[in-house]
Amino acid sequence: MPSHVTSRLLSAAGTLTGAALCLCAAQGFVLGEARTQAQLAREQGQYELATQRLQQALRFTPHAWQGWSDLALTARSAWVFQQRPEQLELALSAYARAAALNPQSAAPHAERARTFLVAGQPANAVNEYQSALTRDPNSPGLRVAFAQALEAGGQPAAALEQYRAAARIDANEYSQDAERRLGTPGPPAAGER
Q1: What does the longest C-alpha to C-alpha distance in the chain come to?
Q2: Calculated CA dihedral for residues 84, 89, 94, 100, nearest 10 degrees
Q3: Average pLDDT score, the chain
Q4: 131-159 pLDDT, tens per residue?
Q5: DSSP character at residue 64
Q6: Is 187 exposed, middle or buried (0-12, 13-18, 19+ CB in 10 A)?
Q7: Cα separation, 74 vs 41, whole angstroms
Q8: What is the three-class DSSP state of 36?
Q9: Which of 73, 84, 134, 172 is most buried as measured by Cβ atoms within 10 A of its Cβ?
Q10: How far apart are CA 10 and CA 37, in angstroms?
């Protein structure tokens, strides 16, 4: 290949690389601004405005898991605080999208599980907490949340096992309380016979 052709190809490749970097920077800026605006809108209870900002940014940055997670949080907040039941499905689907885009993270699964639990669907919450724990098995907070979902689903023995697992990682008041509520009573004390 002649040197002038090679030179032009290298120049074009440099231009394309520069353009790709600019596009990535622009996407990051757009998403960052949208997330900030959405957070401010959520704090003021303006969930529709927050949703609009995030959806606009996600059209430009569809692979940004943080944006999907923020959209899910916004929808969940509108569902809970404004009693807008149609927002539940948006919250669950946006958390699922965030999980698919960031498969190593436990956070989207944990948040989706929390949403299921608030919706009164402990079986679905249990499944999502199990997914979260495969990604972060040493989180005492996840273990406690999983135990709470198991308990809400009528599985006290399995719940107690998870509360105990959380306490082995880090002593906590939830596990201590669960031990009092769900633990098997020991033999009576000498003075209680």
Answers
A1: 100
A2: 160
A3: 87
A4: 999 999 999 999 999 999 999 999 999 99
A5: -
A6: exposed
A7: 9
A8: helix
A9: 73
A10: 40
- Residue recorded with tokens 């704090």: 43
pLDDT at 22: 47
pLDDT level of residue 20 (50, 70, 90 thresholds): very low
Residues ≥6 apart with Cβ < 8 Å to 113: 124, 125, 126, 127, 128, 129, 132, 145, 146, 149
Tell me how far CA of residue 33 lies from CA of 10, 18, 38, 56, 57, in angstroms. 34, 22, 8, 11, 9
Q: Check: CB of residue 147 under 8 Å from CB of residue 160.
A: yes
Secondary structure of residue 85 in the 3-state scheme: coil
**DSSP type of residue 9:** H
Q: How far apart are CA 128 and CA 124, in angstroms?
A: 6
